[in-house]
Protein 1
Amino acid sequence: MQRLQGIAVSPGVAIGEALVMDSEGFRIPRRFVARDAVDDELERLSKAIDAAAAEIQNNREAVEKELGGQYAAIFDAHRQMLTDPKLRSELESLIRDRHYSPEYAVSRALRRYAKVFQELPGGTFAERASDIYDIEKRLLRNLLGRRREGLSRLTSPAVILAHDLTPSETANLDRNFVRGFVTEVGGPGSHTAIVAEGMEIPAVVGVGSFLTDVSGGDLIIIDGHQGVVILQPDEETVARYRHEADQQRTLAARLETLRDLPAQTADGVRVDLYGNIEFPYEVDHCVERGADGIGLYRTEFLYLSTDSEPTEETHFEAYSRVVRSMGDRPVVIRTLDLGADKLAQIPSPAEERNPVLGLRSIRMSLRNVPLFRTQLRAILRASALGNVRIMFPLITTLLELRQARMIVADVMEDLEEHKVALNRQLPVGMMVEVPAAVMMIDRFVEEVDFVSIGTNDLIQYSLAVDRGNKDVAGLYNSCDPAVLRLIELTIQATKRANVPTNLCGRMSSSTAYTQLLLGMGLRQFSVTPGAIPEVKRIIRAVSLPLCEAIASRVMGMENARDIKAFLREELKKVAPEMEQR
Ligand code: PEP
Ligand code: MG
């Protein structure tokens, strides 16, 4: 049994057989081979080495012809490493003596070498390490040959273990079979994490290197509350987690009774509790849980399901499905927030060194007006079907907001000229997720109908911490006093101007922050659908004076650790049965 600690990104317990993916996203088969298969496996290894060496030779010749001998030299180094007799005898002994499968032996041995180079001081040999990974991949490709399978065509339940999963790979996971997933990399605010939450499967990311310690078919437990992964658990541990999963089901069933009750504090203050969605089907999860509306529809995820640019009709179909399901409840459609880690399919103009500070989100929409107009036409058409609101992401300057609004007005005019039905009065709002927007909030509120605080990015940009990087995950803190001040400034300024404020970052889904945010004056929460019952349970259990006292205590504190500990205690007082999310 081995216990690993990672970052909890999607709650729940999953117990199941491991399906291990290599760094290129292909399944690595079981670790061990049968005793009587050893000779065949040695033969397979030998063939794979020969084939890989021949490939390298071919590449060498092609590059020499194109670019000359000096560029071809790198291939000589690769071939030398690959055919090194010491490496070969090590691999053979792993197969013969330990009965490792050739794939497992190759991964194990080469990654160990790569690690040695990686860890040498000064980083001088880091490139050597990537050469070794390259050889590993080449050998695996040859070993797995046509047996290479991706994540499609799963036929039985599995827990996915991978180095990384892109948001689109995550979005395409088969929910009928995937019980949960664990990745070596990834941070707390990554979009892969957001998709996992939306799909409601337990997930842990940023565990660090562990894939060589597991084999396909091993039993795995994922604890998506605590960020814990247990490899080859003993019986007692399995029993304990099965019991915990049962308890969670009981709690969820109990919370279902809140479905039709309003999100209202014990002393009668009504709060709007909305759902965040990425895919149209999630609207059903919101309806089932009695959401007051959709507070954030992340429309860029439309791009994850297709290889080509979505047409106006594709946009419209998705929006109308959501709007119709919500009846007269509000649906906030956020315009495309493409870029950074969501960009994958869209060709970027040039290699970006700093994608989160680059051409993403509203900046990309304003640079690519035809793309923006296509989406706006679809949103405006959908506005005739229900209570649609439009929201711009990553607004940093007033000029950006004005430009975006001008384009909306222009598209409206266009549609009206063609007698297309739409709601002329549709509210237009913006995300507040860049510190610059907070500093200028008193001006922004004069030009928008509502705002929504995006803490996922606000934390990243105010604390200078990459939301997708596990190595700085400990610095990515919702309850950092600087972040809390930015939120408070926003809530106060919008209140003065009578502009409704929502909070749609992941922070609002965590019951640890519900009392604090209420006390700070927040009256609209937009949360991942799975969190609606729990957040509602807290809202209904507390009274405003208590929340205000908590907020006032917290705003006087100096560091995130103390604030977190204090909030955990306060949560325990109102909901002892509820684990912090
Ligand atoms: C945010 O930044 O808090 C947010 C809600 O948007 P996203 O997570 O899609 O960047
Ligand atoms: Mg954001």
Note: The radius of gyration is 26 Å.
Protein 2
Amino acid sequence: MSEMTTSSRSRVLAGPDVFERICEEILRRERFLLTSHARPDGDSIGSQLAMAYALDALGKQVRLVNADAAPDHYREFPGLDRIEIAERCDAEADALIVMECSDLTRTGVSGLEGHYIINIDHHAGNRMYGALNWFDESAAACGEMVFDLIRALGVSLTREIATHIYLAILTDTGSFHHSNITPRTFDICRQTVEAGVNPAAMARRVFDSNSFGKLKLIGALLNAMELTDNGHLAVLAIDDDMLAACGCTHNDTEGVINLPLTAREIQAVVFFKVVASGDVRVSMRSKYDVDVRLVASEHGGGGHRNAAGFTVPGPLAEVRPQIIARLGKAIAEGMHRQEDDE
Ligand code: AMP
Ligand code: MN
């Protein structure tokens, strides 16, 4: 594996021929199974469905399987009903394409191990679990990588494909907020808009589709928000009572974590979610050089510098102070570097 030394970002860090090999293997195989990570987000759904429509265009057989249903506001995007929801999948396929997963267990679907696996991902720390592993940390979204692949396969950018690529980029850049955006991100977006994507309509569908219950939930969460580290860290936590009072489910918490970052002083946000098993799911977001991925990786999780997560056993009262202290350090370091840069 080589270090990133050229501007042809697609092939670096994954072995020189992997991109061409993936194209060849896709073209010569017939039956594909596509999957992505549990609790899918816009990038996983967008990458998966863009890939599915491209494989359709090539005349391939395609099945899609995920562990969890997509959040409600993605349901009206084209092809969402094609995704089977299952904890186990014994489908036969000539290749399994896994997108957005640093590890096969991230799919949350069992029974996938025996397949010929094509691994396409942009999360640091990818375990290279496939027969072919294309890993590109510099991609702002996995959808950017899928875009490259689709074009290399000779498939034209239909409206459906463009919609899903744009969805992937719009959501994984935190609606063009995160530090992973490059000129290429906009170049791809430009092409999707030329193919019929309406950015205003997309933003409305993705970000302005809250239920009243969710608005109430946002109010309750922000009201209970704790500020630490001189107001640089915001701490959110949800429990079942709060969800029930607003008539919401855990799905309704999607995106809420980004709201505290709109306050100028806040450098990072941590959101604790106690799930049914008693485990605590920890989501983190940050600005600039505050590296929350490092914190996630110390707890067996992953993600990106400005958006990362992990799951640990509870109880919350034990986990919470440790993580807050660790994030305080990350903020002190990241802010220091920011000042150096200025
Ligand atoms: P979330 O806070 O769940 O929206 O996740 C933010 C980012 O962290 C996404 O890129 C996720 O794929 C990644 N991430 C979240 N939880 C985990 C985990 N347990 N293991 C690896 N990556 C994770
Ligand atoms: Mn992603």
Note: The pocket of manganese (II) ion (ligand 2) is lined by residues 43, 100, 122, 141-142, 172 (CB under 6 Å).
